[in-house]
Amino acid sequence: MNEPCEHLRNLTETDFASLRAPFACEECLKEGTRWVALRQCKTCGHVGCCDSSPRKHATKHFHETKHPVMRSAMPGERWTWCYVHEVGGEFEPAHAPSKKELQHG
Predict the structure, then answer these.
(1) Distances (CA, A) of 49 to 4, 25, 71
(2) Distance separating alpha carbons of residues 34 and 19, to the nearest angstrom
(3) Among 3.30.40.10, 3.40.50.720, 3.40.50.300, 3.40.50.10710, what is the CATH number of 13-104?
(4) What are the pLDDT tens digits along the chain (105 aa)?
(5) Helix (H) or strand (E) holding 68
(6) Domain residue extents for the chain
(7) Alpha helix (H) ranges present in the chain?
(8) Cis-peptide into 68, omega within 30 deg
């Protein structure tokens, strides 16, 4: 398995903002459009729709802001994506020790 890029290395759930209500794509709500799944920006907490959604707001957010990392905002999913390096990863749950803590613990 490939090592994650520097943007994804050692991410935990606490590196992302808490999801706020309403649990929805911010732009789709304003436009009255539908989404398939949701993604959250690590840098600012923006929630946008995935690339399977008609408007692809999460990717548009990256192109507008250059914020490199997002995660799936869907319940039970822990995967992440780095737009810069086009590589995925997985974050540790908030309650579990990180790999770094296990190595230095």
Answers:
(1) 24, 5, 11
(2) 19
(3) 3.30.40.10
(4) 466 799 999 999 999 999 988 899 999 999 999 999 999 999 999 999 999 999 999 999 999 999 999 999 999 999 999 999 999 999 877 655 445 544 544
(5) none
(6) 13-104
(7) 26-31, 57-65, 99-104
(8) no
Residue 60 in contact with residue 71, Cβ under 8 Å?
no
Tokens 């949701």 -> residue? 38
In angstroms, rounded to a whole number, what is the distance separating the alpha carbons of residues 81 and 89? 6
Two tokens, residue 98: 């990180």
* Chain centroid to CA 95: 18
Tally the residues of the chain: 105
- pTM of the entire predicted model: 0.84
